[in-house]
Amino acid sequence: MNDNQHAFLAAQATEPQRNLNIWLGYVTKLSWRQGSLDQCCYNAALRAASLGINEDLVLDVLSERVAGQVMFLVLPRSRAKFNAPGIM
Question: With CB atoms 3.0 to 4.6 Å apart as the test, which of 5, 20, 34, 65 could cross-link to 1 if both were Cys?
Answer without folding.
Answer: 5
